[in-house]
Design a protein that fits this description.
Blueprint lengths: L13 H12 L7 E4 L9 H16 L3 E6 L9 H14 L7 E3 L4 H13 L3 E4 L3 H7 L17 H12 L9 E4 L14 E5 L13 E3 L1 H12 L3 E5 L6 H9 L8 E5 L2 E3 L6 H9 L14 H7 L3 H11 L6 E3 L1 H15 L2 E2 L1 E2 L2 E6 L7 E7 L9 E7 L1 E5 L19 E4 L4 E9 L6 E9 L16 E2 L2 E2 L4 E8 L25 E9 L11 E4 L3 E5 L10 E6 L4 H13 L6
Parallel strand pairs: 1-2, 2-3, 8-9, 10-11, 12-25, 14-20, 18-21, 23-27
Antiparallel strand pairs: 4-5, 5-6, 6-7, 13-24, 14-17, 15-16, 17-22, 18-19, 19-20, 23-24, 25-26, 26-27
Helix pairs in contact: 2-11, 7-8, 11-12
The structure holds adenosine-5'-triphosphate and magnesium ion (MG).
């Protein structure tokens, strides 16, 4: 069983309160058994992570267990590749279902027997109305439905027809098995819902064994009962289905009596989480695949540089709500930034290189300077970085004709190179044809080694740099939010594709990095000083030629929002 991690208890929420009460009243014999029930028709995303953390987290907290169950009742859309990716992602997030890997399709025999039991007790019938006629008989929110002419067939006739459905005697859509409940129920879901439909489609696990498949509302509650689930936690869109969940379990002889509880689905700003839309992004080529680092999938986030701990912490921070809300994506970004600030080694990398020649530094010589690996972590130690006559700095750290507030390098001005020396710009070399600045000539002050002047003189800027002959070369991918609007699907008049951010990926192909970064391992994470957090791509990097993905920038918009909220809360001083 997944052990509760130190400091990772689920903060109070209404489902947790229900479990505490149930344990006190011994409602489920003192047991807590939850499940995470993905449909294997896509990759898991950050919304699923919330459900995983909740289900596995609650079980762990109360000494219970959590099952992984594939809800594979729809043969048309499901694939075993999705099953594998889901298992990988749940494990990566840090949760363990041990030997409790289940499939709803494992229960097809038992579900079929339960359906026969309902027919025998007169609570289900085979309906020969066409799908269109069934729709017309259903009624509306204000008008009750009407009974099907097939509703009162005898038990024997229904059993025979159901067996023949299974034997493949009818075509798809020719008939369905329906629960016999109440066509006038105010809850439309209760108006004789379908329980089994004919689908002459191969299933990725059961092959051609079945040509009838149970509906979600029939399969889910019974799978829960078969597994002895105590608390069946799902999202709010199933609130109206709870009445049917209870009806099925109350009208059959089931081995356990689970209860369904709904919480609000997580929405994230600047993000879409519907699997249908994620599939569209891939098939239309807006992103490369499910694990594109711009995707909100767990595989995309992982490749982007998110850690399991940062995602679990995010899920704890957003809590569990009863009503839908949208979470600011900057809170997710903040959770990884906070972690990497503590853990990621600092390195220097120049993304847009501008050559600098130190004219008073001897040719063919180099220096080794000591740099701090992580000022947040005293145990991270130091490293040596080479310095030489030819360096690169960032193009945007130099201006020939700087405005008043630009404090970085300019002609005649002195700045500090981090961990190295003070340098002063003496000349600007331009390309004759284009007028573009291609090189700077500078002098350095050997007495400022380590970055401080013995005479106490100050400079206004510290720049990152790399030694040109020593530097590694790499591609760096600057990822940004995939959508440019906070609610990409919010406007029914505008296709969400139109809200894609055209600048969500910029690839820089001639970046110069500290030498050690040339051999960094896939997945390794760094802070590039002054630029952001980056990791080595796990898919495209070649040995000796890494590709770096930007995880997040250093700018923390969430911290700013929090500060503003705190300032608003403070009582105003009376004037
Ligand atoms: P989609 O509607 O995009 O296809 P889904 O909800 O059908 O997604 P499932 O595979 O059925 O995907 O989801 C498995 C579990 O994850 C369900 O219990 C579901 O409620 C939960 N889940 C899915 N999306 C979210 C979300 N955005 N926030 C919280 N829980 C979610
Ligand atoms: Mg679903």
């Amino acid at each position: 069983m997944e052990k509760q991690r130190a400091g990772e208890a689920t903060p109070p929420n209404f489902i947790r309160d229900i479990i505490i009460k149930d344990l006190k009243n011994n409602t489920h014999g003192g047991r807590v058994i939850t499940r995470f029930p993905p449909e294997p028709n896509g990759y898991l995303h950050i919304g699923h992570a919330k459900s995983i953390c909740l289900n596995f987290g609650l079980a762990a907290e109360f000494g219970g267990i959590c099952n992984l169950r594939f809800d594979d009742t729809n043969p048309a859309k499901e694939e075993s590749a999705y099953v594998d990716s889901i298992k990988t992602d749940v494990r990566w997030l840090g949760f363990d279902w041990e030997d409790r890997l289940y499939y709803a399709s494992n229960y097809f025999d038992r579900l079929y027997a339960f359906a026969e039991e309902l027919i025998r007790s007169g609570k289900a019938y085979v309906d020969h109305l066409s799908p269109e006629e069934i729709r017309r008989h259903r009624g509306t929110l204000t008008r009750p439905g009407t009974n099907s002419p097939y509703r009162d067939r005898s038990v024997e006739e229904n059993l025979d027809l159901f067996h023949r459905m299974r034997a493949g005697e009818f075509e798809e859509g020719a008939c369905v098995l329906r629960a016999k409940i109440d066509m006038a129920s105010p809850n439309i879901i209760m108006r004789d819902p379908p329980l089994y439909r004919i689908r002459k489609v191969r299933h990725h696990r059961t092959g051609d064994a079945w040509c009838i498949y149970p509906m979600y509302d029939f399969a889910h509650c019974l799978s829960d009962a078969i597994e002895g689930i105590t608390h069946s936690v799902c999202t709010l869109e199933f609130e109206n289905n709870r009445e049917l969940y209870d009806w099925v379990l109350d009208n059959l002889d089931v081995p356990a009596r689970p209860r369904q509880y709904e919480f609000a689905r997580m929405n994230l700003s600047y993000t879409v989480l519907s699997k249908r839309k994620l599939v569209q992004l891939i098939t239309e080529g807006h992103v490369k695949d499910w694990d594109d680092p711009r995707m909100p999938t767990l595989s995309g986030l992982r490749r982007r540089g998110y850690t399991p701990g940062s995602i679990r912490r995010f899920c704890r921070r957003i809590g569990v709500a009863r009503r839908d809300s949208t979470i600011d994506v900057s809170l997710l970004e903040n959770s990884i930034r906070e972690e990497l600030n503590r853990t990621a080694p600092r390195r220097m990398a120049v993304l847009h290189p501008l050559k600098v020649v130190i004219t008073n530094y001897p040719e063919n010589r180099s220096d080794s300077l000591t740099a701090i690996n992580n000022p947040q972590d005293p145990n991270a130690g130091t490293r040596e970085v080479p310095f030489s006559r030819e360096l690169y700095i960032e193009q945007e750290d130099f201006m020939e004709d700087p405005p008043r507030k630009f404090f970085r390098l300019a002609p005649g001005r002195e700045v500090r190179l981090r961990y190295a020396y003070f340098i002063t710009c003496t000349d600007v070399i331009k390309d004759e044809a284009s007028g573009e600045i291609i090189e700077l000539r500078c002098t350095y002050d050997p007495k400022t080694r380590g970055g401080n002047a013995p005479d106490g003189r100050k400079v206004k800027a510290t720049l990152h740099w790399v030694s040109a002959p020593h530097a590694a070369t790499a591609d760096v991918r600057l990822y940004d939010r995939l959508f440019k609007t906070p609610n990409p699907t919010g406007d029914a008049q505008v296709d969400f594709i139109a809200n894609l951010n055209p600048d969500s990926l910029k690839t820089l192909s001639d970046c110069r990095l500290e030498p050690s970064l040339g051999t960094a391992d896939a997945g390794q994470q760094f802070q590039f000083e002054r630029l952001g957090y980056f990791c080595v791509d796990t898919r495209d990097a070649l040995p000796g030629k890494p590709v770096f993905n930007r995880t997040v920038t250093l700018r923390d918009t969430w911290a700013r929002i929090e500060k503003q909220m705190q300032q608003k809360k403070k009582p105003r001083k009376k004037s």
